Amino acid sequence: MRKWLYVLLVIAILYAISTLGKKKRIARDPFLKRIDKIITIVVWTLVIVYGAAFLYWLYTEIIG
């Protein structure tokens, strides 16, 4: 159970770092816009994948 919390914490920290002060940086550099969008897509994809895996783990541990 703890490994899921640690992974989600790391993902949340990465997302928070990518969103800190992004309006100032991105307005100047279009390359940073692309990197920020890629990071956002990767983070949300990982959240969905780990969320589904966590729900599957709960299902197999509690019900099965």
Radius of gyration: 16 Å
Proportion of strand residues = under 5%
Compute the separation of the termini in Å.
Answer: 16 Å
Helix count, DSSP H or I runs of 4 or more residues? 3
- What do the pLDDT scores average to? 77
Largest beta sheet, briefly?
A: none
Total strand count, please?
0
Percent of residues in helical segments?
A: over 70%
Q: What is the H/E string?
A: HHH
Poorly predicted spans:
none
> How does the overall form come out from the CA principal axes?
elongated
Tally of domains: 1
What is the structural class?
mainly alpha
Keyphrases for this structure?
single chain; 64 residues; 3 helices
Short description:
With 64 residues, the protein is an all-alpha fold.
Please explain how this structure is put together.
This protein has one domain. The longest helix has 34 residues, at 30-63. It has helices at residues 2-19, 22-28, 30-63. α1 packs antiparallel against α3 and α2 packs across α3. The chain is mainly alpha-helical.
